[in-house]
Amino acid sequence: MEVRTLGVLTGGGDAPGLNAALRAVVRRAMQYGIRVLGIHQGWNGLIHGRVEPLTRYSISGILPRGGTILGTSRVNPLETDEVAERIRANWRKYELDALVVIGGEGTLSAALEMHRRYGYPIVGVPKTIDNDLCGTDMTFGFDTALSVATEAIDRLHTTAESHDRVMVVEVMGRHAGWIAAGAGIAGGADIILVPEHPFRISEVCQILNHRKSLGRFFSIIVVAEDAHPHPDEDFLTPEEKERVFQHTRLGGIGHLLARKIEELTGIETRVTVLGYTQRGGVPTAYDRLLATRLGVKAVDMVRASEFGCMAALQGMRMVSVPIEQAVSCIKRLDDELYETARVFFG
């Protein structure tokens, strides 16, 4: 299949490395004489015709920039028949031959359905700070989030030690504990709580009291935003669960955990919620490199007509995997990594 015009969009939450991926798509396409159209605000841009040519000039200097020069959104391209028809009309209007979709589970699921239902020639690129997409060993954005969280934990150590406090650090991690475990290990946390392993508040308090008996009057606890208490010791009210574990917006477990710790141990406890700082700012060198490799691979896949597939990292190699494989499950935290973290609890 000859490709003369290639569209590219970024969807879902922003992640460090998006601009590096866009730059790579454009530069690789230029080598093959392919024109690239940038689609603004994710699928929304394809619905409303918000498109601009991406040239060597327009991508100059964007490699180290955070965010995405195209903007992003969480619009569903399959929401109604009218939306689908507007996309079809704009696809013809701008003479698109193929589309590279850069996003996480939600964006790539929509891309897969667009390919299956309407036959659109689409290639995916995995992006999420949570690192929870199957089919790839790593997603870009994760390394930057990990570095930001680790630096925050490093800084909180001095405050915790100065004031003999427990510091609870709530990090992102929608249904997977990769950031919590990685940053917790790298930052020397004393307890790490992740979605994959429901925690018992009695065990948390036992560790804190034991540290205090040894003269360690401060502690650092890293908790993923979707970490749940064990049903045996669930201290959350139904209203609190509804508020904290909303599918569309997680967050708040850190404050509830801190309140319970202070109540049961009498140790002064404070909370820091890192929130969106984890996915903002400049990408790390690793994320720039990974995003660049994935962007180049995506264009090569377009030329090879590997549609309905996603560029992925497996080992040290760039490979093509079905998008269906990537979105069929959540890549949970590796048990071996969590066992490594547990070595340092207490």
UniProtKB/TrEMBL annotation:
What are the Phosphofructokinase domain coordinates in residue numbering?
Answer: 6-302
Q: Principal localization?
A: cytoplasm
Q: Where are the transmembrane segments?
A: none
What top-level class of enzyme does the UniProt entry assign? Answer: transferase
Query: Pathway, according to UniProt?
Result: Carbohydrate degradation; glycolysis; D-glyceraldehyde 3-phosphate and glycerone phosphate from D-glucose: step 3/4
Report if keyword Metal-binding is assigned.
yes
Enumerate the active-site residues: 130
The UniProt annotation places Mg(2+) binding at: 105
What the entry lists under InterPro entries is as follows:
ATP_PFK, ATP_PFK_prok-type, Phosphofructokinase_dom, Phosphofructokinase_III, PKF_sf
Q: Which residues bind substrate?
A: 128-130, 165, 172-174, 225, 270, 276-279
Site (Important for substrate specificity) location in chain: 106
Write the Enzyme Commission number(s) for this entry.
Answer: 2.7.1.11
Q: List residues binding ATP.
A: 13, 74-75, 104-107
Q: Does the keyword Transmembrane helix apply?
A: no
Question: Where would you find this protein in the cell?
Answer: Cytoplasm
Question: Quaternary form?
Answer: Homodimer or homotetramer.
PANTHER family recorded:
ATP-DEPENDENT 6-PHOSPHOFRUCTOKINASE 3 (PTHR13697:SF52), PHOSPHOFRUCTOKINASE (PTHR13697)
Summarizing the function annotation, the protein's role is: Catalyzes the phosphorylation of D-fructose 6-phosphate to fructose 1,6-bisphosphate by ATP, the first committing step of glycolysis.
**UniProt family annotation:** Belongs to the phosphofructokinase type A (PFKA) family. Mixed-substrate PFK group III subfamily.
Q: Which HAMAP family match?
A: Phosphofructokinase_III (MF_01976)
- Specify the protein name: ATP-dependent 6-phosphofructokinase
